[in-house]
Amino acid sequence: MVKVRKTEGDARLAIGGEGGYPTAGASSWGSAPPSISPRNGQALQREKLLREAIGSEVRARRRNFGMTATRLAAASAISTGMLSKIENGSISPSLGTLRALASALATPLTSLFRNFNERRDAMLVKAGRGVNVERPGTGYQLNLLGCIDSSSCGVMIEPYLVTITNETEPRPIFKCKGKQFIYMLEGEIIYRHSDNLYRLLPGDSLFFDTDTPHGPDELTVLPIRYLSITACERGAEER
């Protein structure tokens, strides 16, 4: 919950239950801050996230408007140093300052909290509990390690544990618009990316664009296991 707190005659933003929690610093706590309880620590962390979300949104909207920091600061009647601290999430701006920034950016005040209010998901996959995905005709076992709706960012990220236990012909070739990261865990493989061949041993990694044909070229030492993380534009099907 976002609410307003009065501090030294100025309206400040706060998060939490009844009473809220001051931001860190002698001017808020008095001579010295009290010991941090788990509850206080959690509230301070949420305030930090709020500051960073507001700063990120202000910076993004300023850049979208093609405004310099000096111009936005002048339009909001604050110093460029103050604006820099706000955009970096270093300070909690007053409600009046936020109103001035929103007005200068021609955006509703509530839009500056958009990134903070968006849902943030997490998924825990216990050992051996991933979803098995079969690629017909490849002989590869793909264990999907997580999946989160990516509609807000337009990018689909798929982490797989890939296991190859048998020789397969022909070798599958993949292609999609995005990036891929491979980290070898077991075995040895020759991996093709366009016209280049890479020998991968346990502990080796390979990071590459996926919009060119790629895939295993030679299964040197079986069994083979590697972690594969692919980030593709939503709707760009791997083929």
Order of helices and strands: EEHHHHHHEEEEEEE
The Cα radius of gyration reads 25 Å
Mean pLDDT: 79
Strand content: 25-35%
In DSSP terms (H or I, runs of 4 or more residues), the helix count works out at: 6
Low-confidence stretches: 4-11, 14-34
Largest sheet: 7 strands, antiparallel
Structural class call reads: alpha+beta
The overall number of domains is 2
At the fourth level of CATH, the homologous superfamily of the largest domain is: lambda repressor-like DNA-binding domains
CATH architecture of the largest domain: Orthogonal Bundle
| The CATH topology of the largest domain | 434 Repressor (Amino-terminal Domain)
CATH class assignment of the largest domain: Mainly Alpha
Task: Give the number of DSSP strands.
Answer: 9
How far apart, in Å, are the first and last alpha carbons? Answer: 45 Å
Task: Report on this structure.
- With 239 residues, this protein is an alpha+beta fold.
- It has two domains: 2-117, 434 Repressor (Amino-terminal Domain); 131-233, Jelly Rolls (Sandwich).
- Helix content is 25%, strand content 32%.
- The chain has six helices and nine strands, in the order E-E-H-H-H-H-H-H-E-E-E-E-E-E-E.
- The chain has helices spanning 26-29, 38-64, 69-75, 80-87, 95-104, 114-117; strands at 2-7, 10-15, 131-134, 140-144, 155-164, 178-193, 196-200, 205-209, 214-233.
- The strands form two sheets. Strands 3, 4, 5, 6, 7, 8 and 9 form a seven-stranded antiparallel sheet that branches. A two-stranded antiparallel ribbon has the order 1-2.
- Strand 6 and strand 7 (196-200) form a beta hairpin.
- Helix 3 packs across helix 4.
- It is elongated, with a radius of gyration of 25 Å.
- The two termini are 45 Å apart.
